[in-house]
Amino acid sequence: MSLAAAVTTLVSKEIIDECRKKLVLAKHDLLNRMKMSAERFKENNKNVGDEIDQSVAQLEEYNLLINQERLRFQLSEIEFALARIEKNHFGVCEETLEPIEEQRLLSIPWTRLSIEGAEIRERYKNHFAQI
Question: Domain span at residue 30?
Fold first, then answer.
């Protein structure tokens, strides 16, 4: 049996449809947040005021860039999840190749790992961080 056929039988259509809805809503929300924060940043004039005001403006710019990078990463995870749905690979743990728990998918629909898979990756990460 192919991976796509196995996935289709492992994750119900209702769960996939619900996750797709959540992913699309999350994508729209992230895009709006990115747009709003970029507009707020453009409104700030970084060259006005004394050194303290300019330092605060630079700190705000730094925080915006960090936040935008975080949002971009989450957006890419959502896009990958939507692509997995389209390719019928949604709901399979990348680490264990076992089905991801339904409650986990409903809570974090862009997840790539089951709880067990996440624990395995965390152990590897900790192991190699000590070396």
Answer: 3-130
